[in-house]
Amino acid sequence: MKAPVVSCLLVLLGTTALATELRIGLIPEQNVFAQAARYRPLGEYLQKKTGAAITFTILPRYGNIIDRFRQLRLDGAFFGSFVGALALERLGVEPIARPVNLDGTSTYRGYIFVRKDSGIRDVATMKGKRLAFVEQATTAGYVFPMAYFKEKGVRDVDRYFKEVFFAGSHDAAIHAVLDRKADVGCAKHSMFDRLARRDPRVAKELTILVQSPDVPSNGLSVRTELPAELKASLRGALLAMDKDPEGIEVLHRFEALRFIGLRKEDYRPVYEIAERAGIRLSTYSYENK
Fold first, then answer.
1. Total domains present in the chain
2. First-last CA distance in the chain
3. Each residue of 38-73: pLDDT tens digit?
4. What are the phi and psi torsion angles at 45 (to 5°)?
5. Domain containing 189: what range?
6. Cα angle at 21 between 240 and 236, to 5 degrees?
7. Which pick of 215, 219, 227, 281 has the fewest CB atoms within 10 Å?
8. Residue 78 to residues 23, 28, 94: CA-CA distances in angstroms?
9. Which of 155, 186, 211 corresponds to the end of one domain?
10. Ramachandran angles phi, psi of 61, nearest 5°
């Protein structure tokens, strides 16, 4: 399957074509159309502020983003927390910035959730049920739940549950439980809350049983080889958005309050959750089985 590409290419001020192109990958945290609509205004804004043509590539799977980053020769990506930690380990990327959510946090949590009418209240009552993960390369959608199940004595999820499947995106995992295609679901809280604002059934019909420690929001990291002035321009444009009327409008459409700096140290909770799950990032096979 070829990854869909969303291009945000503009000729600034009606003059000459832009000299620099930045190819930035996006993880498939929701369906590609919603993901494209969310990031398109941000790409146009960054292009205007940095003078670089921004091309977003929505990658079809979490589980191949490291390989596709190399194959497509991407310049950066808005990595999820676990894939961001993998990228630090395997690509040596440089963290730039991450958004602050509408609730004022710059982090997210993993949720394990069920339908309120399911009768499921704990791991014991999950036995023999259907479980929907997101992808093997997500903190909220796989790594945290695996750590949790392991600590609760579940050594083999494939044997413990009647069915285990990967929904492919956080919104798909939520809808799988909402639509009774799965009994237990795993997803990030920011996507859960975003869907709840649009669909009242989410809050009315689903209940959260477990939540993970906080991990950093999906943040932009780039190749270290990019020119220093371009990295500084990207970082500066993102961090100053909430002080610019045009930037504030873009942030509103992006469903964020502002951007803040992102550091390698911010990924420490991800490493800790992975260790609890028995995962070593340097050798982890992150593609779905």
1. 2
2. 17
3. 999 999 999 999 999 999 998 877 667 788 888 889
4. -65, -45
5. 110-211
6. 15
7. 227
8. 11, 10, 12
9. 211
10. -140, 145
The amino acid sitting at 90 is R
> How many residues appear in the chain?
289
Between CA 224 and CA 160 the distance in angstroms is: 44
CATH code for the domain in which residue 203 is found: 3.40.190.10
Please, are residues 55 and 7 in contact by the beta-carbon 8 Å criterion?
yes
**pLDDT tens readout for residues 117-156:** 999 999 999 999 999 999 998 999 999 999 999 999 999 9
Identify which of 235, 218, 217 has the alpha carbon closest to the alpha carbon of residue 226: 235
Buried b (16+ CB within 10 A) or exposed e, 76-105: bbbbbbbbbbbbbbbbebbbbbbbbbeeee
Residue 29 makes CB contacts below 8 A (sequence gap 6+) with 35, 80, 169, 170, 171, 188, 191, 218
- Count the Cβ atoms, other than its own, within 10 Å of residue 170: 32
